[in-house]
Design brief:
The chain has helices at 16-31, 37-46, 49-57, 105-119, 134-142; strands spanning 6-10, 63-67, 70-79, 89-96, 125-130, 146-155, 158-167. It is of the alpha+beta class. The longest helix has 16 residues, at 16-31. The structure holds coenzyme A.
Length: 168
Amino acid sequence: MSTVPIDIRISTRADAATLTCLHQDAWRYAYRGIIPAVTLEKMIQRRDVRWWERMHRVGGQALLLEFDHEVAGYATFGPNRVRKLALGGEIYELYLKPQYQGVGFGKRLFKEARRRMRERGYTGHLVWSLGANESACRFYEALGGKEHARTIEALGGLKFEKIAFVWR
Ligand SMILES: CC(C)(COP(=O)(O)OP(=O)(O)OC[C@H]1O[C@@H](n2cnc3c(N)ncnc32)[C@H](O)[C@@H]1OP(=O)(O)O)[C@@H](O)C(=O)NCCC(=O)NCCS
């Protein structure tokens, strides 16, 4: 019997091209039918390989989950950006390739991001999700997140509700 390795590691600049493709696939799959197509494509194009290279050059990193030596998903996290919410950390992004969704990888990445935030001394954390991204909302609820705040964001001339899920 052979075993397939699942590994979580920190990205480097050499992962920029992989992250570009993963981001494109995951965003098209997650937001098609939610964000207007032209706006969605513009958002995706802004995240080209140069964007990911620059992110690493200025000290940014992503947490990568590898399945059988292939990057299946990523998470980014750091300090909470909304000061009036008294929480230390924030998961900024958590995206899996469509073919790797629904088999527990999101939960693994989430838990590892959470562990690393605790290690850095962050007390509690939050995640923002579009309310219309119902699948992501159900995922965060399944992981114990509690809805804490709502806000409105304008994208492509439309208004979208964003929900903050919180873990204390
Ligand atoms: C959202 C996402 C990260 C979840 O990762 P995933 O690997 O598909 O989810 P998992 O298989 O790890 O599920 C973890 C738990 O959430 C539950 N869950 C996941 N999606 C769910 C859904 N749509 N409805 C109900 N429960 C759900 C699972 O049943 C599981 O519960 P358990 O721990 O009790 O078994 C992933 O599907 C994804 O990348 N989606 C597209 C991008 C996206 O929307 N990202 C979030 C942006 S805010």
